[in-house]
Amino acid sequence: MPIVREISRQTLLRRGIAFACATLGWQVAGIAVLAVAALAARSVALAGLGLDSLLEAGASAVVLGELTGTGKAHRQLALRLVGGGFALLAGYLAIQSTLVLVDGFHARHSPLGIGWTAATAAVLSALAAGQARTGAALDNQVLRTEARVALVYGALAVAVLLGLLLGSVLGWWWADPLVGYLLAAYAAREALGIFRAKR
Question: What is the DSSP string of 124-185?
Fold first, then answer.
C-alpha cells in the first residue's frame, strides 16, 4: 500500500510539473503575441498584459524550480527580481494610462489582441483548475498558489478583452487606459505581497 501511495504521489507531482510547464509556455508565447498586438493597436492595456506575462513567466519559472527541487538556492533572488519588476510595471502603467487619458489617444481595433486575450482567459482558467486540484491532492502550497495566480491572470485577460471590445464596438476609447490602471493596481499588489512575504 505505501508503494502504491508513493507511485500515486509521483504521478500527481509529474502532473503538477506538466501544468506549471504549460502555464510557463503560454506566458512565454503571450509575451511575443501581446508585443505584436500592443504595437499594432497602440494599446496600453495590451502592453501591460504583455509585460505582466513576462513577470508571470518569471514567477512560473520559480514555481517550476520549487516543484523540481532545482531552483531553491536562487528562489529569494528570483522573487526579488519579480517583485521589482511588478513595482516598475505598476509605475509604468499608471503613468502611461494617465498620459493616454490626458492626450485623448484612441487605441486601434485589435483582432489579434481580442483573440489572444479570449484564448488566454479560457486556457489559464483551465490550467488554474488543474493546478488547484493537483495541489489539493498533493497538499502542495506552491501549486495552490500558482493556481490562484493563473486564475487572476485569466481574469486580467478578461478585463483587457472587455476594454478592447468596448473600444472597438462602442468607441469607448477611455476603456483601454482604465484597464491599464487596473493592471497597475494588480502589479502594485503583487509587488507589495512579494516584498512583505520576504520580511
Answer: HHHHHHHHHHHHHHHT-HHHHHHHHHHHHHHHHHHHHHHHHHIIIII--TTHHHHHHHHHHH
Q: How many domains does the chain fold into?
A: 1
Amino acid occupying residue 158: V
Q: How far apart are CA 190 and CA 90, in angstroms?
A: 10
CB 96 within 8 A of CB 140: no
pLDDT in tens, 69-85: 766 666 677 677 778 88
pTM (two decimals): 0.81
Q: Around Cβ 42, how many Cβ atoms within 10 Å?
A: 15
- Domain hosting residue 125, numbered range: 2-197
How many Å is the Cα radius of gyration of the chain? Answer: 18
